[in-house]
Amino acid sequence: MSNYNYSINDVKIKNVSITNHKGNGGVIDMNQIINISIYEDISKPTLYATIGVVDALDLLTKIPIIGEENVEFTIETPGIASPSTFKFKVYQVSDVAAFENNKGLAYTLHCVSEEHLRNTLILRSHMSGLINEMVENILTTSLLTKKKFYQEKTVGLELLNLPQLKPLAAIDFLRQRAVGDDHRASPFVFFENQYGFNFSTIKGLFERGLKEVVPIGREFFFKQNPMVSPERQRESFRSILNYQLVYNVETYRKLQQGAYKIRTQMFDLAT
Fold this sequence. Notes:
It is a single chain. The protein is an alpha+beta fold. The protein has helices spanning about 60, 115, 130-140, 165-175, 200-210, 230-235, 250-255; strands at about 10-20, 25, 35-40, 50-55, 70-75, 85-100, 105-110, 125-130, 150, 160, 190-195, 195-200, 240-245, 265-270. The strands form 4 sheets. It has a 7-stranded antiparallel β-sheet with strand order 2-1-5-6-7-4-3. A hairpin with a 2-residue loop joins strand 11 (about 190-195) and strand 12. Helix 3 packs antiparallel against helix 4 (about 165-175).
């Protein structure tokens, strides 16, 4: 094993490409990418991303970038066995600024999963069966997704006349009615991550997540400072075993309603 800590270089961006519906565009030089931010949230149904670009090739007008262009990139992340490929659609270009020498532009591409842009039709239908099967049906027939769908089985047959809702709103309506077969006391969530779409209880997510983390043979060492008092050593020599934090503008309201629980456990080796 190695005593090598994680660093910023451990996450590697393999390639980035952008094309429009006509196929114009292609792979972007990595020197033109300032940053990539990907947002996953268990309270949001789809993924979001922002890409900072330094554009010396005038891609804005040559492709052109006007919205709904395809953006694809592959990232290698430590702890995950295989690279992750993300596919997005551009829905906004912001922060456009010209260089002082007028030889290029800097701007930010705002991207979202393509399923989010398909969330336009109003559902008017009767549905029956298990709720997890109804959710899968909406994903494949209304949102036309081909991504993997990780689902937890629900209990109780339902016969529903869905109100006039868009597909993602209909899934959220079903989510609130769902009761898990294995974890009946845990609430359901529906969201997208790098593996695909997920319809699961929160407890089920923790149980499944432990199996997907791949050990990579690294150790982390604590070095005591002999100049520090024993009291200070006991305060600093601690390891966080479990910490969960949901950051959202409505987190406080959800906590009051009991939607999420925040619990911190600490293990003090000194005592």
